[in-house]
Design goal:
By secondary structure, the chain is an all-alpha fold. It has a domain of 208 residues: Peroxidase, domain 1. The protein contains 13 helices and no strands.
Length: 307
């Protein structure tokens, strides 16, 4: 199988133009249009903040960071904006989160929302809206986002290390970690498409370039030309942050699992199946372990502070 076969699934993430209709699956606490009476222009305010950040800076890496923020938030303590909290030993300080970007966009959106509708819109919902808005700005789908999440007050570096799927994990390991969060193999493959945008640190994949048990030290499953290019960007003693292709072991090993590879090829060969699959995966992920006021949920006035 040619490695190039892996790319269309990512391309479809950016090129799909079908408007998605949400199908809320498991969280009665979330609803589309939740802020209609509480803060009518909430989603528009977030969208403006995202658009200004991307078009103003010309740095799409910031936008890609917004998708990662939402994902990294939901996988640790659920979608409660705990990834945004500052302080020692918080999720921000965990190695997988040191390269997260886009915090300032969330800060801007939150500040504008607090001026327009004080104490009404949660940081967790801002993360969900911002991830969707980034997809739209990249030329992707415009889908509705169920909202009504509440924010948490606890953030743990050790929990981030425990629950965030590592870039060097194999299919079985990553699948198990997704399953703990109620996500299927299908969801895992679809959500892996988000790796198509943004940048990666060399440390996340350099083992595939230099540490494999092969004559040249390169992972045999990696395209040789691609590996040679990456070595120019990531020399063995350190280097930069190249654009994503199939960088991570966790992505590459999808092709080494029959069921996962079939899903990759299905999305590649039938791109119009992507909108429904993407919708289902994003909605499910965005509903992981939603907090209620009874178990500590609140609306933080400052997304960086537990208050």
């Amino acid at each position: 199988m040619r490695r190039a076969n892996y790319k269309p699934i990512f391309a479809s993430f950016l090129l799909s133009v079908v408007t998605i209709q949400c199908m809320l699956q498991s969280s009665a606490s979330l609803s589309v249009g939740y802020y209609k009476s509480k803060c009518p222009n909430a989603e528009g305010i977030v969208a403006d903040a995202v658009r200004s950040a991307i078009t103003g800076s010309g740095d799409r890496g910031i936008g890609a960071g917004l998708i990662r923020l939402h994902f990294h938030d939901c996988f640790v303590r659920g979608c409660d904006a705990s990834v945004l909290l500052d302080g020692p030993n918080t999720e921000k300080t965990a190695p997988p989160n040191l390269s997260l970007r886009g915090f300032e966009v969330i800060d801007t959106a939150k500040s504008r929302l607090e001026s327009a509708c004080p104490g009404k819109v949660s940081c967790a919902d801002i993360l969900a809206f911002a991830a969707r808005d980034l997809v739209v700005l990249l030329g992707g789908v415009n889908y509705t986002v169920p909202s009504g999440r509440l924010d948490g007050s606890t953030s743990s570096s050790s929990e981030a290390m425990q629950f965030l799927p590592p870039p060097f994990g194999d299919v079985s390991q990553i699948q198990s970690m997704f399953a703990v969060k109620g996500l299927t193999l299908d969801d895992m493959v679809i959500l892996s498409g988000a790796h198509a945008v943004g940048r990666s640190h060399c440390s996340s994949f350099s083992n595939r370039l230099y540490s494999w048990n092969s004559p040249d030290g390169v992972d045999p499953s990696m395209d040789k030309n691609f590996a040679a290019y990456l070595k120019t960007k990531c020399p063995e003693n350190g280097g930069g942050d190249p654009a994503h292709k199939v960088l991570f072991t966790s992505d590459q090993t999808l092709l080494n699992n029959a069921q996962a590879a079939a899903l990759v090829n299905q999305s590649s060969n039938q791109p119009y199946t992507w909108p429904r699959s993407f919708n289902k995966a994003m909605v499910k992920m965005g509903a992981i372990e939603i907090l209620t006021s009874a178990n500590g949920g609140r609306i933080r006035k400052n997304c960086r502070v537990a208050n």
